[in-house]
Amino acid sequence: MPELPEVETTCAGIAPHITGQLLRKVEVRDGRLRWPIPEDLNEIVAGQTLVKVTRRGKYVLMHFQTGGLIGHLGMTGSMRIVTADEPPAYHDHFDLCFDDCLVRYRDPRRFGSLLWQDYPLEEHALLADLGPEPLTDDFNVDVLHTACKGKKQPIKTLIMDSKKVVGVGNIYANEALFMAGINPNRQAGRVSRKRLAVLVEAIKQVLADAIKQGGTTLRNFVDSEGNPGYFKQQLQVYGRTGKPCRHCGEALIEVRLGQRSTVYCRHCQR
DNA sequence: AAATTCTCCTGAAGGC
DNA sequence: TGCCTTCAGGAGAATT
Fold first, then answer.
1. Are A151 and A233 contained in the same domain?
2. Which of A43, A51, A210, A230 is the most exposed place for a label (fewest CB within 10 A)?
3. Domain shared by A157 and A58, yes or no
4. What's the CA angle centered on A107, arms A104 and A112, to 5 degrees?
């Protein structure tokens, strides 16, 4: 499942191949994604030149002349560069056909999306209310402290709320909370400012480390097979229910928070 | 207003 | 071996 680091890796992987190129056509084989791919998308964007590729949260933004494509990889989406003679496989739902190559989108569970927005892109409903980027200075202890003030919701669900901060998925939320020594169940408003500062740094570090990992698996990513980057990194808690905490040895426990599996150490995380 | 639950989907994994 | 059920989860929508 693509998390922010995988999206970052995807953007970095496709950008050099398509930046400055003319988009000839959007070839949609199955437009039934999270939201249907707009019927008139090809009419709008075909013939426009790609100016740049950026990322906002987990959204891939392809900036053209009059607006941009807003892509999301959902749970199982991937974008890779292929040549025009490569036949599409099952679940390859659309191609962005540029002059020299195609961006081929594959997504078995179809939780992803492809939408269009005229400039300015941030006016799109999906982008308008997003919180700060976690790896910039816009995400800091002041912002998080304000967001947590008076909140009774668990700290874990708060940091996974894209209106508070973008790009913190379930895996990295688990890992960051372990790194910060904070119990995922703890009410957000009852985490001290000092500990929130530690959490901010943990989130930044976990994501930055994963981007480094993602960078190392870029080739796999483009090749097709290969595990996503986070499988290669040393996960401390996610997927380790019942196994010994790497700090104290106590068995890690799992609970459900907001329908998401939450793993933590009762001893190390308060 | 805030917090929780539901929803989309398919492939993998587990049970018998 | 095969069929069934359960689970995973991003994140907006719906509900409490």
1. yes
2. A43
3. no
4. 100
* A154 part of a folded domain: yes
CATH of the domain at A182: 1.10.8.50
**Nucleotide nearest A3 (Cα, C1'):** C10
The answer to whether A141 touches A201, Cβ cutoff 8 Å, is no
- Asked, as a colleague might, if the bond just before A134 is cis with ω within 30 of 0, I would say no
Q: How far is the CA of A258 from the C1' of C14 (A)?
A: 15
Same domain, yes or no: A148 and A257: yes
Rounded to whole angstroms, the Cα distance separating A137 from A153 reads 25
Structure confidence at residue A178 (pLDDT)? 97
* Cβ A11 vs Cβ A52: under 8 Å: no
- Taking only the tens place, the pLDDT of each residue in A2-58 is 889 889 999 999 999 999 999 999 999 999 999 999 999 999 999 999 999 999 999
Task: Tell me, rounded to whole angstroms, the distance of Cα A138 from its chain centroid.
Answer: 18
Query: Domains in chain A: how many in total?
Result: 2
Pair A91, A156 in one domain: no
Contact assessment for residue A61 and residue A70, using Cβ atoms and an 8 Å cutoff: yes
Q: What is the DSSP letter of A50?
A: P
Last residue of a domain, one of A89, A123, A157: A123
A103 vs A210, more confident: A103
Residue-number span of the structural domain to which A18 is assigned: 4-123
Check whether residue A73 and residue A168 sit in a common domain.
no
Return the active site residues of A.
2-3, 58, 260
Query: DSSP labels for A165-205?
Result: SSS--HHHHHHHHHHHT--TTSBGGGS-HHHHHHHHHHHHH
Query: Which strand C nucleotides have any atom less than 7 A from protein CB atoms?
Result: 7-13
CA of residue A126 to C1' of nucleotide C12, angstroms: 9
Closest nt to residue A153, judged CA to C1': B3
